[in-house]
Write a structure and sequence with these properties.
The protein is an alpha/beta fold. Helices cover 39% and strands 15% of the residues. It is built from 8 helices and 6 strands, in the order βαβαβαβααβαβαα. It has a 6-stranded parallel beta sheet, sandwiched between helices. The radius of gyration is 17 Å and the shape is globular. The structure holds adenosine-5'-triphosphate and magnesium ion. The site of adenosine-5'-triphosphate has 19 residues, from helix 1, helix 4 and helix 7.
Length: 209
């Protein structure tokens, strides 16, 4: 059976927290392939400090370059409406066929809320999850949620190794505006892309290479 992972997020921009989780999720669940899928952004978020869907996809492509197991996917960008994970996972099941096992990858912050997502209970009944930890969230709380969801929905949930690193796209956008270094926080190709395009008001973004 083919094992396919889907990793959704805004990726605005993608950073090493995402990449560590992606690689460790693929390893923990022995995935054949993991698709990183930028979501259409909420209309509320459109503003100067936010990158366009195409730019976010391009940064994901740059970030996964050279890793054959990770791939950028524009599946959620093809739909112009809000990207609901349940719809995305159903489309993937259609695309990969019934013989593929499809897992959704997420950090502890998102995992704690998944039952409340649109069609959350159906996602939990029909798909597998791979979950990491996240700085600011207790592993005990995550583990209690794993036990609860396993009991309630019989969800197959794999825990991925994820060191707690306090990195978020929000913090990175702020650091860019402040002209702070992002070396080793962003993949070099993504850092160069942001600087070249002046994304997130990057005029003052320092040259670090
Ligand atoms: P923002 O600050 O804009 O919300 P973010 O860094 O949280 O950005 P998202 O695109 O919202 O990134 O996250 C996508 C997925 O990646 C979520 O499942 C989230 O839990 C996970 N994730 C992001 N950063 C980390 C991190 N540092 N550690 C663990 N998981 C992370
Ligand atoms: Mg987030």
């Amino acid at each position: 059976m083919k094992k396919i992972g889907i990793f959704g997020g805004t990726f605005d921009p993608i950073h090493i927290g995402h990449l560590i989780l992606a690689e460790q999720a693929a390893d923990a669940a022995d995935l054949d392939s993991l698709l990183l899928m930028p979501a259409q952004i909420s209309p509320f978020k459109i503003g100067k400090d936010v990158a366009s869907p195409r730019e976010r996809l391009e940064m994901v492509k740059l970030a996964v370059e050279g890793n054959p197991r990770l791939q950028a996917s524009d599946l959620e960008l093809q739909r112009k409406e809000i990207s609901y994970t349940a719809v995305t996972l159903d489309l993937c099941r259609e695309k990969f066929g019934k013989n593929a096992e499809i897992s959704f990858v997420l950090g502890a912050d998102a995992f704690l809320k998944i039952e409340q997502w649109r069609e959350g209970p159906r996602i939990l009944s029909e798909y597998c999850l791979i979950v990491g930890s996240r700085a600011g969230y207790l592993d005990e709380e995550r583990d209690a949620q794993i036990a609860k969801l396993r009991e309630r929905y019989h969800t197959k949930i794999t825990v991925a190794f994820m060191p707690k690193i306090e990195i978020s796209s929000t913090d990175i956008r702020k650091r860019i505006q402040e002209g702070r270094s992002l070396r080793y926080i962003l993949p070099p190709g993504v850092e160069a892309y942001i600087r070249d395009r002046g994304l997130y008001d990057a005029e003052r973004f320092k040259e670090t290479d």
